[in-house]
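Hi R.,

Here's the chain you asked about this morning:
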Amino acid sequence: MRAVLQRVKHAKVTIDGRVSGEIGTGFLILLGVAPEDTPEEALYLAKKCVGLRVFEDENDKMNLALADVGGKILAVSQFTLYADCRKGKRPNFTRAAKGDQARELYEYFVDCCRGLGVETQTGEFGADMKVELLNDGPVTIMLDTDELIRKK
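And here is the predicted structure, written out as tokens:
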């Protein structure tokens, strides 16, 4: 699984003019799923995201996690995180999981975040979404379970 985590002041997803998910302070997480990904990896990634200490404390040091700042998550499925651009000018997405598997693991990731006590809003899997955000910092972190788990 791949996650692009952005620390935000606010973020929202709209679909056909309707707000699907919206948060204030927290993380916008763009989540991609590969065919070899597992529920265990989704749980590991959720714990990693929820526990990351990237919010400033009273000394302006990145030392606080979501729970410490009352932060929320907006999770958006994004298969394009698995784009293969090595050949030509048109990306290939064969490294992304197919619809049913990707949806299942995306929804499980969201459930894990909620189970860890973080209010979690979502986009809509497979929809044409418009994502708005105010990146705070900017702080943007890429997490990949291939690097976090499999290559240990």
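One quick note: The radius of gyration is 15 Å.

Cheers,
M.
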